[in-house]
Specification:
globular; two-stranded antiparallel ribbon; 67 residues; mainly beta; single chain
């Protein structure tokens, strides 16, 4: 499992822009292409400084990876 983060301002009722994301080819050894990709939001920080933490994230991390 690899983790990453993104800082993007998303307005209510909208989705993220098409100009942001993660590279899914090349991998860490520059020779691996992504076959399966699963993502989960761990935490969100709002403009007022408050945060929401996904209560299901720890369970998602423990889930057995796809073989």
């Amino acid at each position: 499992m690899k983790q990453g983060n993104s800082e993007e301002n998303i307005q209510p009722g909208k989705s993220g822009g098409g100009d942001s994301g993660w590279r899914l080819t090349g991998g860490f050894n520059k020779g691996t292409d992504a076959v399966t990709f699963k993502a989960s939001v761990k935490e969100v920080e709002y403009y007022d400084g408050s945060k929401w933490e996904n209560p299901y994230y720890p369970y998602w991390v423990e889930e057995k990876p796809i073989q």
